[in-house]
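Sample entry was shown:

___
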Amino acid sequence: MSGWDDYIKLLFGKSPAIKRAAIIGSDGSVWARSGDANAFRATEVELKRFAALFNDINSVPGTGADLEEIHYIVPRVEEKLIFGKKEQTGFFAAKTNQAIVIAMYEGDNAQSASVRAGVEYIAQYLASSGY
């Protein structure tokens, strides 16, 4: 297990609603991803496109975002955060200087708050560590 995998485990511990997760570089390269029954299945092409969304984050609500071959509407973005939703599933992604933390979740809007908090916690820690 790499050190990056430990951050994935920590992220899962932040919310039971998190089903899959990854940490990618700002270029879309995979640093760590959940596996086995909770395998994060986004392709290399998807992740490169997804990482590029942060270059023009304010346009993302108009176009949405694709992960794991699913198109999500994006009702909200913030400076370094994208929130995607489709029915009872969604994702939060937070960008640091070098990394993007992504958590895919299942559940209602009330559960999404803990997912967001977990993603932001990991992202803030990575940013404070120089990533």
